[in-house]
């Protein structure tokens, strides 16, 4: 059963301090009397005043004070200031400040089985003090363990790099991957009363044993992609040249000459080095 945060019933600390001083003062006055009964009541009042002091507590900015009474949760106070509550309650403070969790570099396998190294920075804070106090053993350790578990699960759902551009990848779709990580972390950490503000991948790389081979593969893929663009552009330029020659009737070419022209233009346009032209000073044929 999930714990629900309730407001702790408290009185202003300054007012109760004045009441406490009045109890002490009246107790001292009674104790100073020669009457034995008055002295006994005075002693009891001074003991009561000393006991009432234990009900004072302070709430710092961006902190919450969680109180329990004989093992039962009675409420939480989030408003900073000086307060007084039942002296029998046990109270502990929980920070509501924004925190960072920087995970270790985890070595996991991606969707394609390639070993990779991955790490993330998680920005979080406590929003439900009752859950953080009573529903998990230690909410800080819970955040650390669940964050690493979610990160491992994320890495196994996507490939490091999608060479076919058919889906999402860890390297190519950082925003979508981070959103998936944030949603999964929020679902996992809701039991501890924790809100995820941001999650970012701080490290992503192939493992050292396959890094060189994968780098060669990336370079080959980049060269192949560039070649495809060059060939598509060259074919378009050759088609445009033949069309212009035909429309403007500059020269009539038979099929053999067209094929030779296409071959020459493709060599010129797709070659990595500058080509050396051969000038025909004779007839066209």
From TrEMBL:
Name of the protein: Membrane protein
N-terminal signal peptide: none
Transmembrane residue ranges: 12-31, 38-59
Domain Band per the UniProt entry, residue ranges: 54-218
Organism of this sequence: Deinococcus roseus
Keywords of this entry: Membrane, Transmembrane, Transmembrane helix
A Pfam entry, by short name: Band_7
Top-level taxonomic group: Bacteria
